[in-house]
Amino acid sequence: MTPFMIVLGLALVFEGGQCQEREVLVAHGSVAVLPCVDEYSTLSYPTAVYWSRVIGDSLKTVWRREKSGLEFRPVRDQPRATCPVPNFGKGDYSLHIAGTTIEDGGKYFCEVEGKTRMVKVIVLRVIRVSFSPAVVVEGSSTEAMCDVSPTTPFVRVNWKRNGHFISRTSFSSVSQRDAGIWTCQVSRNGVAVEATADLQVKGIATPQDDSSVLYATVGSSVSLPCLFTDGLIPNTVTWNRTESPRPLPATFELPLGSAASATIQRVEDGDEGMYTCSGRMKGLEREGIKVQRRMELVVTRVLSSSASSGNGPMTLTCHLSNSDNITSYEWLRVTYGPNDTQMVTSVQNNTKSFRIQQVTEKHAGEWMCRYYGIQGALGNVTYQFNIMGALKNEKSSPGNKTAMVMGLGFLFLVVFLVLFQMYRNYRRKKMILLYPAMETIVHQTTTEREQRQRSKAKMTEPCVGDPKSVCV
Length: 472
Known about the structure:
The chain is of the alpha+beta class. It contains four helices and 32 strands. Strands 1, 3, 4, 5, 8, 9, 11 and 14 form an eight-stranded mixed beta sheet that branches. Strands 19, 22, 25, 26, 27 and 30 form a six-stranded mixed beta sheet that branches. A four-stranded antiparallel beta sheet has the order 13-12-15-16, with no helix packed on it. Strand 4 (58-65) and strand 5 form a beta hairpin.
């Protein structure tokens, strides 16, 4: 018996009954409410409620309550369909189906038996988003489908990915950027219902594509990410430098075990360029499929230049091995306060180089160059201005120069006189040692001369107390 004949038969059997058809759209996995309300309130307290659905050419009972109040439920499985009895007093006999599946779509009948008989027909259409094939691997083809059960040609379908409307639902080479929440919006008779599904693309989740750029300062460490999607274990992982004959850096550390991310412990000049992470995946239907990801490493540093005399101005330049993605620069001064609190002050914007007209002690410390791209700040590179270097390059005033010259001249004179006297004593001693007899004569002569000078001084001294006497 066809569904049309069943409806016709019920309408003929229930003499004086009301037979109406209504359509309900629900998303897969949601709660479906099939309305069955007595709009005319002719049935105050019905004695029996029967819910059934058409499966093939037969009518199957979904939920029922007899006149005696006996309610029938399935024994083996937890019932997903129920009809809240407390709502009967309000004339509401709607059927609630929890966790709706695509198989729940179809035609349902609500029969309420009381003083009169009421029959209502509800068509439940379930909307589901699916992908073909079910397991999507990057690089392969896939198609997003919006299933409506039971099908009908009179619907309007729109697609969204991560909340944005799109027009393309099939891909010949899917990538990680195609992953996310896919939404199918179905509209019919002025009613719109959305069904969603999460598309997970098997492969390398981070980075998503080959446009990733990493920035690292000379002397620092940097991590090169290569993360596979959950539940996916790479069979083999290899790293190499793309489009470069140079080997991997000396401090390059390969991953251990199933991890694929690598690390350069100390970045040096010459480490810039393209790096490729590749791996063969296992655990999929297509064993040994290879995926790879390229990323660029940009090495940054601050270059300083000053006058050859060491007293002239100094220029700090923010140098990047590749500045194609840089839109602007900013120079900042970093100072530290109590408890190692850091204070950053902007000094100059929109210039790659910063010029210090006269280097003084106040310029010593830490300087920072921050570089920006379209998406915002990309990184920082710092330069440590040594205090001794600043003092060395500081210009001296004319007064300080004069004092310094005079001090050095006086010191040189004292040293010269001391050395000259030491030389004279040395020569004298050397000459005397050559003639020992002369040394005795010179010594005796000197002694006699000193005695005569003392005697002469006593003879010329007047006597004290007696004016007549003369002291001899």
